Amino acid sequence: MLEKMPRVLGEALSGLKAGLEGTTYHEAFADVAEGITVTSPAFTDGSALPARFTADGEGVSPPLAWGNLPPATEAIAVIVEDAGSPTPRPLVHCLAWNLPTAGGLAEGAASLEGHPGSTLGKNSFLKEGWLPPDPPTGHGDHAYLFQVYALGRRLDLEAGSGREALVDAMRGAVLAKGSLTGTYARR
Prior knowledge:
By secondary structure, the chain is mostly beta strands. 7% of the residues lie in helices and 27% in strands. The chain has a single domain, classed as Alpha-Beta Complex (Phosphatidylethanolamine-binding Protein), CATH 3.90.280. It has two helices and nine strands; from the N terminus they run αββββββββαβ. Strands 2-9-8-4-5-7 form a six-stranded mixed β-sheet, covered by helices on one side. A three-stranded antiparallel β-sheet has the order 1-3-6, with no helix packed on it. It is globular. About 4% of the residues have low confidence.
């Protein structure tokens, strides 16, 4: 959708970015200890997301792996936000909770089929599942923060809930966090 935005408008908005400080990781859970390792076989921390995971490709969610979880971890929550979006708050690209603690997410797993027993929330376009990165042409690099949270309990939260409801449900349950950043830009 944003690929249709004229380049001149993207360039004019290039200085306007939500910022990392507005992400859930740095705002709602700033005081939670880091320690979870988050990796992907598709990209390294701080590098560009391959186009196949964006609106310019197949639009599937990238694979993620996590490790170094606290022993009391009962479930995992994943939040993906775009800190480079020209919006007051980072755009939500994925919300998932009650994921299994072992392993991670396979490529394309952040879809409605997902993992049995896990739950997907609504992204910023009000759809459940993965919202492929779709930055405005000429806006510059966008930083997509893949956040993984170790939870001390499974969350009792309705499927299709949004970011605020998920954050509220996570309060008091987060044992540790970790992140991985992928970038993407339309030149």
